User: Which sequence fits this backbone?
């Protein structure tokens, strides 16, 4: 199944996508709710509408404005170094344990929403990544059972503000600027992809300029290994997000000059079989000011 969470004139809903059209699943069963967490927690919700899908009204996918697949993920965990050539271009030694860090909710946004270059830095970088959404939670999950805990896969752009990332050995500042991590728009269930989403072409582009091009089969730690490793120290919950690291070709490592994202550009992250996460880049100074409600 290919899901899309988004909004049209009728509000935010969960859609099942087929080709260039989609069915509003929330309209068929309101218990599904406005994001994927309902389906993640209760698989029987899809069974309840299975007989209605074929004859349900369909709308154009491009008429739906994407929203976050999971509106309020409990935990967002990211791998920092998971492709050998990316590790080398960054000047790091190849680790024997994955480099893990966390993102906060304010740092993420839906595909299609502006990616904000902060006013304090021009060193906004892109990172094409596979992201998984946890279905069944748990602790001490074995590698052999780990893939049973995946609800689906999506696309992630781990936007990084590099000078702030380098200010400390912990990467938190550079990885948590508001509206720098784009997610989506599609979530694809494991049955439609190779095991562990391995062997998929992954690429980042600005227009016709190819910035990164690799394959998820080149990841050092597989999806199963990553889930097992993370669940050694924390309990994973349904709807948690795990980003699987980026391949080589990031902007800070370009020679002879770094390649930073600029306002006015649109960066596309594509993973075969899943889709394209597209983000227009804006400067924080040009971002509309939110007025607090009285």
Assistant:
């Amino acid at each position: 199944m290919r899901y899309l969470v988004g909004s049209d004139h009728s509000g935010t809903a969960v859609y099942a996508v087929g080709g260039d059209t989609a069915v509003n699943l929330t309209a068929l069963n309101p218990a599904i709710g406005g994001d994927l967490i309902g389906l993640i927690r209760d698989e029987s919700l899809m069974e309840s509408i299975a007989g209605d899908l074929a004859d349900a009204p369909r709308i154009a996918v491009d008429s739906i404005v994407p929203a976050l697949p999971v509106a309020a993920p409990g935990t967002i965990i990211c791998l920092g170094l998971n492709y050998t050539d990316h590790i080398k271009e960054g000047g790091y030694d190849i680790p024997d344990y994955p480099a893990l860090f966390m993102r906060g909710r304010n740092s993420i946004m839906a595909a299609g929403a502006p990616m904000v270059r902060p006013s304090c830095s021009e060193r906004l970088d892109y990172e094409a990544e596979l992201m998984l959404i946890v279905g069944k939670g748990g602790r001490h999950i074995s590698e052999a059972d780990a893939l049973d805990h995946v609800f689906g896969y999506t696309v992630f752009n781990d936007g990084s503000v590099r000078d702030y990332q380098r200010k400390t050995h912990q990467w938190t500042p550079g990885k948590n600027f508001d509206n720098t991590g784009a997610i989506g728009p599609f979530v694809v269930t494991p049955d439609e992809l190779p095991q562990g989403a391995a062997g998929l072409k992954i690429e980042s582009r600005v227009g016709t300029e190819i910035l990164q091009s690799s394959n998820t089969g080149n990841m050092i730690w597989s999806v199963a290994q990553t889930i097992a490793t993370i669940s050694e120290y924390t309990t994973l919950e349904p709807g948690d997000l795990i980003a699987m690291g980026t391949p080589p070709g990031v902007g800070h490592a370009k020679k002879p000059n770094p390649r930073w994202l600029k306002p006015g550009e649109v960066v596309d992250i594509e993973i075969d079989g899943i889709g394209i996460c597209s983000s227009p880049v804006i400067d924080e100074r040009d971002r509309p000011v939110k007025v607090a409600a009285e």
Observations:
- The mean pLDDT is 95.
- Helices lie at 25-28, 37-41, 44-49, 84-89, 162-165, 223-233.
- The two ends are 43 Å apart (CA to CA).
- The chain has two domains: 2-66, 76-286.
